[in-house]
Amino acid sequence: MTVAFFPSDMNAPLRTRTRFAPSPTGFIHLGNIRSALYPWAFARSTGGDFILRIEDTDLERSSQAAVDVIIEGMAWLGLDHDEGPFYQMQRMDRYKAVLAEMVASGHVYLCYMSMAELDALRERQTAAKEKPRYDGTWRPAPGKVLPAIPEGVQPVLRFKNPQGGSVVWDDKVKGRIEISNDELDDLVIARPDGTPTYNFCVVVDDMDMDITHVIRGDDHVNNTPRQINIFKALGKEPPVYAHLPTVLNEQGEKMSKRNGAKPVTQYRDEGYLPDAMVNYLARLGWSHGDDEIFSRSQFIEWFNLDHLGKSAAQFDEAKLRWVNAQHIKITADDVLANLVAANLQKRAIATDERLPRICALFKDRCDTTLALADWAAVFYAEAQPLPADIAQHVTDAVKPALALLADKLAICTWDKASIAAVIKEVLTVCGLKMPHLAMPVRVLVVGNTHTPSLDAVLELFNREKVISRLKTA
């Protein structure tokens, strides 16, 4: 019998419910978080619910520290969940109750094949060039005589997978997928100690939490036919599935911890904006025409499952920095100032009310808030010009002009227009062109040869500090 599942054939539920279900076995990287971004966006775009579920049944590798990092990374990106986090280890009684129901209904049976027997079976199948798989020795059937129950063997529970026909579903990314039931052996859904396995727990969770759409990585495609069959055995309709292509790193390998992926929170520490990260990640597998830069609200308004890409997306840090730079330009100055102030505080640098204006002046030059903090720091700390810049620009020929500029600045009104007038006057008196004066002033005051308009920069400095630095020439 073919088990077909096409969402269009269902009476669509009134409310969308999506989920993100990470395993807390390490830090969460960009490839992982994209699998949270899309179900979050779909729930928000449809007025539905987004559920966070922690799949922590791998007791040896799971840790609370990893859970904390997952929640911290999602909170930084603004991927707020409506329900959860739910923990699978806290739902064991529920899983065991459903297992008992399935044993009673005949959908699950006890299998006493030992690991040694199973390994020997697979070796024989491999030698015969057959697909290694459980052969149904302990599967009950009308008229079949099962082997004698061996002593000292704790049974596993196996799901009685349908025989014949296919599992068919309409994947929102990959299109129609059909898997023959003959390719699927009877899955172990509870270990000898009674602990349920991944594919079973996922189905019970999705069923109990009324999940309508499962949006996840395509490494789960092979799990889907098994899960659909378990749903059907439980008398439930499966959710809509959308299997996302892999995110590749810059070397073209699958993004993973082993292949050098960074924790999501590291991007925060490196000065990336959460809205820029959401913008960039959204484009790693989804598009809205040719739009490259968009706000979070636009993303939510535009997002749907019809424009998910079918090909693997490759991470490009240079492109990410460019996207971040565009978002820095459009971010409010006071918002940037708060981020910069927090960074400078880590450097033991105190700031003041000038900081939003400093951010406004320099944000067009920066691709991270760390770079912006570096610029802001020169207004609150001592300048550190390079000796080579001093030697090149602060020459004996220009020192009289610098001294005159210091004297004029000491008595002028301290605003941009007045400072500009003083600079122009000194240039005229000394017969200099702007670069001949501006470069040494930048070196002495800012410690850098490249800044925005000199009058705008000087206005943001303390007058006494400017005069003091000019007089060091």
UniProtKB/TrEMBL annotation:
<dbReference type="InterPro" id="IPR045462">
    <property type="entry name" value="aa-tRNA-synth_I_cd-bd"/>
</dbReference>
<dbReference type="InterPro" id="IPR033910">
    <property type="entry name" value="GluRS_core"/>
</dbReference>
<dbReference type="InterPro" id="IPR014729">
    <property type="entry name" value="Rossmann-like_a/b/a_fold"/>
</dbReference>
<dbReference type="Pfam" id="PF19269">
    <property type="entry name" value="Anticodon_2"/>
</dbReference>
<keyword id="KW-0963">Cytoplasm</keyword>
<comment type="similarity">
    <text>Belongs to the class-I aminoacyl-tRNA synthetase family. Glutamate--tRNA ligase type 1 subfamily.</text>
</comment>
<dbReference type="GO" id="GO:0016874">
    <property type="term" value="F:ligase activity"/>
</dbReference>
<keyword id="KW-0436">Ligase</keyword>
<keyword id="KW-0648">Protein biosynthesis</keyword>
<dbReference type="InterPro" id="IPR049940">
    <property type="entry name" value="GluQ/Sye"/>
</dbReference>
<keyword id="KW-0547">Nucleotide-binding</keyword>
<feature type="domain" description="Glutamyl/glutaminyl-tRNA synthetase class Ib catalytic">
    <location>
        <begin position="17"/>
        <end position="322"/>
    </location>
</feature>
<dbReference type="InterPro" id="IPR004527">
    <property type="entry name" value="Glu-tRNA-ligase_bac/mito"/>
</dbReference>
<dbReference type="InterPro" id="IPR001412">
    <property type="entry name" value="aa-tRNA-synth_I_CS"/>
</dbReference>
<comment type="function">
    <text>Catalyzes the attachment of glutamate to tRNA(Glu) in a two-step reaction: glutamate is first activated by ATP to form Glu-AMP and then transferred to the acceptor end of tRNA(Glu).</text>
</comment>
<feature type="short sequence motif" description="'HIGH' region">
    <location>
        <begin position="22"/>
        <end position="32"/>
    </location>
</feature>
<feature type="short sequence motif" description="'KMSKS' region">
    <location>
        <begin position="254"/>
        <end position="258"/>
    </location>
</feature>
<dbReference type="InterPro" id="IPR000924">
    <property type="entry name" value="Glu/Gln-tRNA-synth"/>
</dbReference>
<protein>
    <recommendedName>
        <fullName>Glutamate--tRNA ligase</fullName>
        <ecNumber>6.1.1.17</ecNumber>
    </recommendedName>
</protein>
<dbReference type="InterPro" id="IPR008925">
    <property type="entry name" value="aa_tRNA-synth_I_cd-bd_sf"/>
</dbReference>
<keyword id="KW-0067">ATP-binding</keyword>
<dbReference type="InterPro" id="IPR020751">
    <property type="entry name" value="aa-tRNA-synth_I_codon-bd_sub2"/>
</dbReference>
<comment type="subunit">
    <text>Monomer.</text>
</comment>
<keyword id="KW-0030">Aminoacyl-tRNA synthetase</keyword>
<dbReference type="Pfam" id="PF00749">
    <property type="entry name" value="tRNA-synt_1c"/>
</dbReference>
<feature type="domain" description="Aminoacyl-tRNA synthetase class I anticodon-binding">
    <location>
        <begin position="344"/>
        <end position="473"/>
    </location>
</feature>
<dbReference type="InterPro" id="IPR020058">
    <property type="entry name" value="Glu/Gln-tRNA-synth_Ib_cat-dom"/>
</dbReference>
<feature type="binding site">
    <location>
        <position position="257"/>
    </location>
    <ligand>
        <name>ATP</name>
    </ligand>
</feature>
